[in-house]
DNA sequence: GTAATTGCAAAGGATTTGCTCTGGT
DNA sequence: ACCAGAGCAAATCCTTTGCAATTAC
């Protein structure tokens, strides 16, 4: 038997690739696409396949260890977040940097309007985009 | 001179296809993909290419005449809405049917938290998903 | 007649899958 | 040795584009 019950957490065998991806995610302040992340890994001299990056990100997102959003072009962007609690983001449209915001208010609003319409099993997505202070400055 | 000033609206030359698409959009109560809409058009005996459907939907969405959202699979779904004013949707995850809801509250919230983070030129997306009464019943 | 519109076929681009190889334990 | 994980190449899927034929006005 193993030292860790296979319950729900121990899905990853500590491989070089997983660790490297983990490190990059820790460093990237902005929402980034799988391809960007892969490029960054290579830039750092890591040998890792794009497929592997996709597969890890998928699992991490499922487990809630990274957040995933879609940009307007349909690309999925990933980012490791500070809090594991439910939250939303204000993301810079130009550089991808994002700020986490808590939104009790929206959660309640969403739940309420959905219920009023007779919907159950309610879920929601809220994304806020804008120009961050730095990018706004550049544009002037 | 034409009966309509060409300002910004007169982009479409009344073609059979445009009219047919328009009719279908008027009938479809649910958010539907371009492909679904195309299928529906064919079902109605219309000869129309998928490309044309995509192109029209694109323009209509730009002009705000239809709303476009993305489902979890990355497909874009379209729907003609009752109100032209800014609003959000509670959409059934199972059948696509949706209810329009007004969300002064969220608009303000989004604007506020973004401003507090120093972001400008703020925009947001809010989508609520759930099971509509009918689909919820079926599942039991 | 002339320019906008159509639509097929092909291109694009992100993501996933098949299947074999590799490396950890 | 065994099995999860890696990764290349090929396959998918939605959507867009190139371009010649068609059609509205």
| Spatial ordering of strands, largest sheet of chain A | 1-3-2
CATH superfamily of the largest domain in chain A: Winged helix-like DNA-binding domain superfamily/Winged helix DNA-binding domain
Q: Would you identify the regions of chain A where 5 or more consecutive residues have pLDDT less than 50?
A: 1-12
Major sheet of chain A, described briefly?
Answer: 3 strands, antiparallel
- The chain-level mean pLDDT of chain A equals 87
CATH class of the largest domain in chain A: Mainly Alpha
Radius of gyration of chain A: 18 Å
Commentary on this structure:
The structure is a homodimer of 140-residue chains. The radius of gyration of chain A is 18 Å and the shape is globular. Chain A has 140 residues and is α+β, with helices and mostly antiparallel strands. Chain A has helices at 16-27, 34-43, 50-62, 104-116, 133-138, and strands at residues 32-33, 67-70, 76-79, 88-92, 98-101, 120-131. Chain A folds into 2 domains: 1-81, Orthogonal Bundle (Arc Repressor Mutant, subunit A), CATH 1.10.10.10; 84-140, Dna Ligase, domain 1. Helices cover 39% and strands 22% of the residues of chain A. The A-B interface holds A 70, 74, 90, 92-93, 99, 101, 103, 105-106, 109-110, 113-114, 117-133, 136 and B 70, 74, 90, 92-93, 99, 101, 103, 105-106, 109-110, 113-114, 117-133, 136. The structure holds a DNA duplex (25 and 25 nucleotides).
